Amino acid sequence: xxxxxxxxxxxxxxxxxxxxxxxxxxxxxxxxxxxxxxxxxxxxxxxxxxxxxxxxxxxxxxxxxxxxxxxxxxxxxxxxxxxxxxxxxxxxxxxxxxxxxxxxxxxxxxxxxxxxxxxxxxxxxxxxxxxxxxxxxxxxxxxxxxxxxxxxxxxxxxxxxxxxxxxxxxx
Length: 171
What we know:
Helix content is 74%, strand content 0%. The protein has helices at residues 2-19, 23-36, 39-55, 60-69, 77-87, 92-104, 112-122, 127-139, 147-159, 163-169. It starts with a helix and ends with a helix. By secondary structure, the protein is an all-alpha fold. Helix 8 (127-139) runs antiparallel to helix 9. The chain has 10 helices and no strands.
């Protein structure tokens, strides 16, 4: 179909730009490969994300997710943590993922306070981090229990379209 041909042309252009040093193109190509959801495409996604990460650290988060989930290779929590940590200063979603590892102690020693700090860093730009902060305040995990702050963070997450937070922020 014409749509598939256009997609293939776009992917070829992104792959070319990636080989020429565009981290953004590598990341976009990785996302397109991943959407194909075949084992070969997932391998290409992992390669594209690895190249993006080599070029610019803020793009290491997607490769971290692949390592965390074991997509296109073995599950490697230690590598996922290192990749999230590398991307975190410039990638709020990577900070959110890193915070989640600390919150549950996956690949790191459990540290609820560290998770909370990472989510605070990410919250202004990542609704999932705000949602996680809300839960921390609601249940007093890593911080003092504070239902009022919890409601504020749930409302903030909901306002940006993060649906899981909406039922909590409205109660």
